[in-house]
Amino acid sequence: MSFLELRNVCKSHGSHCVLRDVNLSIEKGEFVAIVGYSGQGKTTLMSLMAGLLRPDSGEVLLEGRRITGPGPDRGIVFQNYSLLPWLTVAENIALAVDQVFPSWTTQQRSDQVDRHIAMVKLTHARDRLPRQLSGGMRQRVSVARTLAIDPSILLLDEPLSALDALTRGTLQDEIAQIWAENQKTVVLITNDVDEGLLLADRIIPLTLGPGAQLGAPITVDLPRPRDRKALNHEPEFKRLRAHVTQQLLGHSLARRSAVSRKLILPEILPEDLELPRVSRPPRRPNEEKREIIVSG
Amino acid sequence: MNPKLRTILGTVGYALVGFTAFLLFWMFLSTIAATLPSPTATWEVAKPYVLEPFAKRGEQDQGILRLAGYSLSLVAQGYFLALAIGTPIGFCLGLSRTFTRIFDPIIQVLRPVSPLAWLPLGIALFYNAGKEALEYGALFTIAICAMWPTVLNTAVGVRAIPQDFLNVGRVLKLSRTKMLFKIMVPATLPYMFTGFRLSLGIAWLVIVAAEMLTGKTGVGAFLWNEYNNSNYGNIIFSILTIGIIGFVLDRLMSLVESRFKSVA
Q1: Is A289 in the B-facing interface, judged by CB distances under 8 Å?
Q2: Beta carbons of B121 and B133 less than 8 angstroms apart
Q3: Banded pLDDT at A88 (limits 50, 70, 90)
Q4: CATH code at B116?
């Protein structure tokens, strides 16, 4: 029996069908990456697994039991960190620990908090508020909070997509290391094929919506620990990347859809030292342009 | 010069220009209107109240800060009553669509009613309390008038809580009380304090009207007394006092408010 299983799951928002007939099974201890384009139902899929949303039809099973609501056995790391801004790093983690382990002594709980702060290398920032931290540090706090409640499965919803490339690389290595040490089941949702290949045992492409489905899983058979620099020259890595990209592109070719997105033109200010430089939203309607991208 | 010092000096400087212009205009008006006392005449009559701010010479004849103290203590009671009632109502409005649909119309009807209209009802309500009826009536009026900004701002604040914060609570399976006090109340605080500040302003507006009508000792009653004594200089003096106290209260509250704003 698989650890987490989705059976014929469908989910719509209003009349818009987001996910259609999604089937997925994940084994215990496995690291699975779901790769797909933005705005395609990845977050909806994650919310279904977390129990924050209920499927319209089909079922989500954890260890054979149907998921009916959210719970601390499924730790979720949100895309936008979701730290409570009025609590310090330690207090944010303590809120979760105190709630999940009420039978522990105060000492045990505060040890648990400190150990996980140390795990993500933030001991020096323990008493800072989230707004005093950089994006990467906030995401590490979020990861530490989730790990501190010792969930049986870790759900990572595009945890690194808001970060700059260098920080992302560092955090990818940290996630790989934490996974190697804890051997937890992990589902990572990402739009970055390389990230999936670097971290996961299996990659599952999500086809382009509306009514997104999961494509055939691709096993990543690269030896661990994986070194990002060496990986780039590995023929197997190149072959897998080409294969995953082909899968994603192939699906989009079949649909050949056009995406329209907002394009804000760069704002040019005179170089006058007396003028304070302020960024502002577009003032006139014609300042806001749209661009159409036809994929495929 | 230190740029920070410069901005402070600038702010004070411009404000002084405004006050000077106001004084000049006042002097000019007092030369035309015979009943309007000039600034110097106002100062002459106000002197005993300002120079001995805590003196007590008689029931109405007291130093200005003593009078203000009476008014402030009544405002404080009514104001905290308003917060104690208004905040939970605001939470209910923010949490429940049904509650909003039931009670929002009646709130919108009661909200624009003037304090002068509530006061007689308040006194009539506590008629049996005898001597205390006036005080309870005034408290009732302050509370019911000052409540609305708190109610509405709290409701808006609760609706504006980011879904992410609520999801954190749901994943942890926080109990309803913990969800309320650990997540919802802290997330709403900035909005609540905006409401608290506006409520305080209204409470201070209401006190003067309430004192005038009930004759309770305080700045408002003093104003009305001095009008009956045809002592017009002290009317202006009272107006200035009320204005300055209201301004100070608002500044203090906005200091507290900005503290909470920067956290969330």
Answers
A1: no
A2: no
A3: very high
A4: 1.10.3720.10
Range of the domain at B14: 1-36
Count of CB atoms situated within 10 Å of the CB of A161 = 15
- Most A CBs within 10 Å, among B7, B171, B178, B188, to test the A interface: B171
B12 with B113, same domain? no
CB proximity under 8 Å: A 228-267 to B: none
Structural domain total, chain A: 1
Residues B103 and B179 in one domain: yes
The pLDDT of A12-31, averaged and rounded, is 84
Shortest alpha-carbon distance between residue B174 and chain A (Å)? 7
Q: What is the DSSP letter of A137?
A: H
Closest CA of chain A from B258, distance in Å: 14
Comparing B9-13, B81-85, B197-201, the range with the smallest average pLDDT is B9-13
For residue A265, is it left (φ>0), alpha (ψ between -120 and 50) or beta? beta
- Best residue in A53, A73, A99 to probe B by mutation, most B CBs within 10 Å? A99
Distance of alpha carbon A185 from alpha carbon A3, whole angstroms = 9
A228: CATH: 3.40.50.300
Its ipTM equals 0.74
- pLDDT tens for B159-201 read 999 988 999 999 899 999 999 999 999 999 989 999 999 999 9
